[in-house]
Amino acid sequence: MTRTKTDPPQSGHKTAKGLQRKTELADQALRSLSAQSYARTSLRDIAAAADINLGRLHYYFGDKSELIVFTVRRFKQTFIARLAEIIVERRSVEEAIEALVESAMTSTALHRFWYDLRNQALFEPKYRDVVSEIEHELKAMTGTVLRLIDPARDPEPFRDLAYVALDGIFFQGIQAVLFGDDSVRERMTQALFAVVMAYRAAGTTARQDAAGDPLPAQN
C-alpha cells in the first residue's frame, strides 16, 4: 500500500492560533519596550515588564531582534493601513492630517521606538531590511497622499522630498510631545497643512506656466 505524502502538521506559532498568540505577546512586549530605549532592554527585561514567561517568549521569538522586527513591522503596518483607509476610501486630506497628529499625540512612545530602531539600523545591519521595508511603504503612502492633494500632477518626482518633509514634521511632533510642549497639536497641524498648500500652489503655478499664462504684474 502506497502512503500518500502529506505535509507535517504545524505546531506552536506556525498555526493560526499560534500566530494570534505570538501577535498578542508582541503587542504586550512592544508596550513595554517602547517605554525604554532599544539599548537599555533585554529580552528578559521585556518579558518581566510585560509579565510574560521568558521561556514562553523564547518559544515565539528566538531573540530580541526577532521580536523587535516583528513588533515594529506590525505597528507600522497597522499605522499605514489606518492612513490608507482614510486616504483611499474617504479621500480626505484633512482627515489624514488629523489622524497623523492624533497618532503622534496618543502613540508617542511607539513612534519614538520606531525612530530609535531606525537610528539603530545605521549600526546594526539586522534591522536594515525591516526599516527599508517600512520606509518604502511610507513613501508609497506619501505618493498616494500627493495624488489626492493634486490629482492632475505626477507625484513621483516629488515623493521623496515630500516624505522627508512630512517625516520631519512628524518627528518634531513626537519630540515636542515628549518635551511637554502644549502647543504641539496646533503647530503640527499647521505645518502639515502648509506642506499640502505648498504642493497645491506649486502644481497650479506649473500648469499656468505650461499653458503660457502671463505672470502677474510686479508692483
From TrEMBL:
<dbReference type="InterPro" id="IPR001647">
    <property type="entry name" value="HTH_TetR"/>
</dbReference>
<feature type="region of interest" description="Disordered">
    <location>
        <begin position="1"/>
        <end position="20"/>
    </location>
</feature>
<dbReference type="GO" id="GO:0000976">
    <property type="term" value="F:transcription cis-regulatory region binding"/>
</dbReference>
<feature type="domain" description="HTH tetR-type">
    <location>
        <begin position="19"/>
        <end position="79"/>
    </location>
</feature>
<dbReference type="InterPro" id="IPR050109">
    <property type="entry name" value="HTH-type_TetR-like_transc_reg"/>
</dbReference>
<keyword id="KW-0238">DNA-binding</keyword>
<protein>
    <submittedName>
        <fullName>TetR/AcrR family transcriptional regulator</fullName>
    </submittedName>
</protein>
<keyword id="KW-0805">Transcription regulation</keyword>
<keyword id="KW-0804">Transcription</keyword>
<dbReference type="GO" id="GO:0003700">
    <property type="term" value="F:DNA-binding transcription factor activity"/>
</dbReference>
<feature type="DNA-binding region" description="H-T-H motif">
    <location>
        <begin position="42"/>
        <end position="61"/>
    </location>
</feature>
<dbReference type="InterPro" id="IPR023772">
    <property type="entry name" value="DNA-bd_HTH_TetR-type_CS"/>
</dbReference>
<dbReference type="InterPro" id="IPR009057">
    <property type="entry name" value="Homeodomain-like_sf"/>
</dbReference>
<dbReference type="Pfam" id="PF00440">
    <property type="entry name" value="TetR_N"/>
</dbReference>
